[in-house]
Amino acid sequence: MTHDLVAALSPLLTAEAAAEAFAGGTEPGDLEQAVWLRLLERLESDGPPLDPQGWLRKAVRAEARRSRRTSRVERPYDAEPADDSGTGPEQLALAAARHRALREAVRRLPGRCPRLMEALLSPKDLTYREIAGELGISQGSLGPERSRCLGCLRRLLTPEVASRELRG
């Protein structure tokens, strides 16, 4: 019985959730999950609705309204929760771990890239002219070389570093 109800309502729920999600400020999949949960709760307590399609439409709209109310109240963090700009032990440990990961990735770069990146990351804040002289390359080829090395570095770090996402 439940399986038949889910199979019958699934296309309607997908369409209704897609139509209401934008106005609710939520993802259609999140809206679908919330309605499925409400249906399961209803089946457990009161049994199947007499008008499943009508109930589903009302449930989708109610969940979209709830989502709108919630999004008005929720606010994003002012700063990244794992912000390393502070001087506490946690921030220092996170910053040190990020610097270690960066230095290890720089050492794995091909060709002249490790030396170039070390020069760019140097606390001496070297100019392009100084870096080019140190590496023995022309100053004009430094920019393209730097771009190529940064691309390699990005590819090395992508699997290791989680992207920062908006939270709220």
Polypeptide structure, described:
- The protein is mainly α.
- The chain is built from seven helices and no strands.
- It has helices spanning 2-24, 28-45, 52-73, 89-107, 113-120, 128-135, 139-157.
- Helix 1 packs across helix 2, helix 1 packs parallel to helix 3 (52-73) and helix 5 crosses helix 7.
- The longest helix has 23 residues, at 2-24.
- The model is unreliable at 162-168 (pLDDT under 50).
Keywords summarizing the entry:
disordered C terminus, 70% helix, mainly alpha, 168 residues, elongated
Short description:
The protein is mainly α. It has helices at residues 2-24, 28-45, 52-73, 89-107, 113-120, 128-135, 139-157.
Q: How are the elements arranged and paired?
A:
Elements: H1 2-24, H2 28-45, H3 52-73, H4 89-107, H5 113-120, H6 128-135, H7 139-157
Helix pairs in contact: 1-2, 1-3, 2-3, 5-7
